[in-house]
Amino acid sequence: MIDNKNVLERYNLPEEVIFCKMCTMSNQRPRITFDADGVCSACNFSVMKNTLFDWSQREKELVELCKKYKRTDGGFEVLVPASGGKDSAFVAHMLKYKYGMKVLTVTWAPHIYTDIGWKNHQNMIHIGGLDNILGTPNGIIHRKLTKLSFEVLGDPFQPFIFGQHNFPLQIAIKYNIPLIMYGENGEVEYGGDMTNAYKPDRNYGSDQKKHYFSNLSPEGMVHYGIDQDDLLPYISPPIEEMDRINLKVHFLSYYHKWIPQENYYYASEHTGFEARSERNEGTYSKYASIDDQLDGFHYYLSFIKFGIGRATSDTAHEIRDGHITRDEGIKLVERFDGEFPEKCFKVFLDYVDISEEYFHEVIDSWRSPHIWNKVNGVWKLRHNVAGTGINDIVLD
Description:
By secondary structure, this protein is mainly α. 42% of the residues lie in helices and 8% in strands.
């Protein structure tokens, strides 16, 4: 079943491809905006982070927030969605050991754990000293949803994203924990909807479908043959239940300057976090998104749909953080972006039970004509950040 709607229409993308003057990101990232000088919203936000925000004042706001949610009945005071990765381990450990909060970490299991991902999850608990609930959905249903998401949304990771956002809400209600603390606000850190850029929290209802679910909520999967009851682990609790405990969802990145590399150093020291021994396919980094054997296909599909691969995402943030220059970032993108995730290809095919031929049929169905063109039987990007795309080159 291939149900590809035009990429331009589904994601409301501009047909003209342009690249940020400060980083390596293009205007094909959904919901990103560019100013009149050709600078993306994420870079403009980064400048404000470095020059305008009073981080000492914001930490005081965090201290007051923690005081507000202290309780005397022995219950958990804050829930942190946490895989054991560098960012979530950092958030949970900081809240518990620096700010004195009673923390419950909640993990929505990856499709298939990597060895290092499982080790880091266990290290978060046994070295980091953090309480944890691990939610693992029905494997048969999860594989069906993964295949459907690959076909219908061009992202096999969507079932994980459903659970990552909604399972913690379910646990918060079950344990009567009215505060959830995520790490970064991805919409403002990486480029997206800037509506909540200057708020510490977000609305847990209205933003999810647009920002995280590609405009298809888990309930929508019933239209593709999934039983409603089988979707319960993926679905947000009723608004009335969340309102009953006055549930609030906050981002630590509002209160603490968000620098992924610093989070890595902190988690390595305090929670036993370990990076991969080799780089991730599609990029040069070793310590981000290393929990799931199917990670690479999420990033590869992003490259296919938007011309934005894993190296683009990594370099864009590291340029904003001052760790590399834009020229260095462009060279890294040229070298690694769009690299095929070969190591787990058979694992992916077996997991969703498809042939290699059908895999490539689905992949090609997500190539938008404004991004790709086939030249002598080979797909080529029309535009890239190095200016060497087939429509960037001007022959004398």
